[in-house]
């Protein structure tokens, strides 16, 4: 039946019945018919091969070439775009790449310049601050209104220190050839109050440089000059102490 | 069994056909020329056998190859080999022409403009090249009883139905059906036996 259907020999009623069955989606029948079609196609070999005329091939090739040519003419292709346009696109692409690179480079340079400017500004502020302190210290040291305080060392081998106290501008303490405290230890300034039983008031800590030299400015002393009996300096742990933990190495009366 | 499992064909000749058909999709004229050179003799032989007139046969062959050129996308290589599909296309075209020519009623008018479905090839199809298969088919048909062979030829080359063949051969309808069925079964068995 399937081969007869594929061969086309079924009478209309038989063919209609089979096609109605196939419309129902019978997969097995559909596959069997596919194979039957193939088998029937093999009957073509019953016919002996024969050569068509060369004119047939000529006519066909002429038609096919014309259609292929027309198809190419209406299909945008790479070759249809002129060279100058490709060159323009390439130049635009390269310029775009260069612009992006250049813009990123400029951005990086501006960022670096901003960082340098900020660092310079910060350095200048610090220098200004140091200059102000230096000026203040210079005024304290040179102003006749400042009180000179000699701080004698408890060790005869250690040089004395000198302080100048200006009632408005603060205290400047200086020294030279001072032994550097060992390890992380520091020197700390104390203000000894006149009030009986008053405890030493802690002030700034400092370390002399490698040559034993230092200049300490105490812009805002923790006590008034009039209420202070003496200045003392002790050796303390790094960061200073709330109360002296060692015997004062230098002491000088405020009078 | 006839309903064998199908696997993609590896016959180099078949692969070449598929490659060439795929190139037609890119409007490759040289691929078309190769396909024509490979198959035009068989197709022309088939169409000429059906139409029996060289001029008309060439017109149909031209029509078949132009349809291939213009509608190559309709051939689905995953569903079956190319040559049987091309044979079916050529036979349908030739029979349509024959029916028009003889003013016979076309039984399936809707087939005129449509390309045929691609027929799945059974497993044994891959074991024979075209030339050997053609030889086998011809040898088998030559060995058939002349009446049986004639019935199949009337069906295949002239597109007659069972009833028309029975009338033409002046044989009972059941007999003609049996001849055709048995002839096709022998062909199937012969090709399977390869």
Chart the SSEs and their pairings.
The complex is a heterodimer of chains A (255) and B (194).
Chain A: H1 2-7, H2 12-23, H3 27-41, H4 54-74, H5 83-142, E1 147-153, E2 161-166, E3 170-175, E4 186-193, E5 201-206, E6 214-218, E7 228-236, E8 250-253
Antiparallel strand pairs in A: 1-2, 1-8, 2-3, 3-6, 4-5, 4-7, 7-8
Chain B: H1 12-24, H2 29-51, H3 54-70, H4 82-101, H5 130-143, H6 146-158, H7 162-169, H8 173-192
Helix pairs in contact in B: 1-2, 2-3, 2-4, 3-4, 5-8, 6-7, 6-8, 7-8
Structure characteristics:
heterodimer; A: 255 residues; alpha+beta; Immunoglobulin-like; eight-stranded antiparallel sheet; 5 helices; B: 194 residues; mainly alpha; Rna Polymerase Sigma Factor, Chain: A; Arc Repressor Mutant, subunit A; 0% strand; globular
Question: If you had to describe this structure to a student in words, what would you say it looks like?
Answer:
The complex is a heterodimer of chains A (255) and B (194). Chain A is built from five helices and eight strands. Chain A has an eight-stranded antiparallel beta sheet with strand order 5-4-7-8-1-2-3-6, with helices on one face. Chain A has 255 residues and is α+β, with helices and mostly antiparallel strands. Chain A has helices spanning 2-7, 12-23, 27-41, 54-74, 83-142; strands at residues 147-153, 161-166, 170-175, 186-193, 201-206, 214-218, 228-236, 250-253. Helix content of chain A is 45%, strand content 20%. Chain A has three domains: 1-43, no CATH class; 82-142; 147-253, Immunoglobulin-like, CATH 2.60.40. With 194 residues, chain B is mainly α. Chain B has two domains: 9-121, Rna Polymerase Sigma Factor, Chain: A, CATH 1.10.1740.10; 122-194, Winged helix-like DNA-binding domain superfamily/Winged helix DNA-binding domain (Arc Repressor Mutant, subunit A), CATH 1.10.10.10. Chain B has helices at 12-24, 29-51, 54-70, 82-101, 130-143, 146-158, 162-169, 173-192. In chain B, helix 2 (29-51) packs antiparallel against helix 3 (54-70) and helix 2 (29-51) crosses helix 4 (82-101). The longest helix of chain B is centred in the first third of the chain and has 23 residues, at 29-51. Mean pLDDT of chain B is 81; it is low at 1-9 and 105-111. The interface between A and B is large, with 44 and 70 residues.
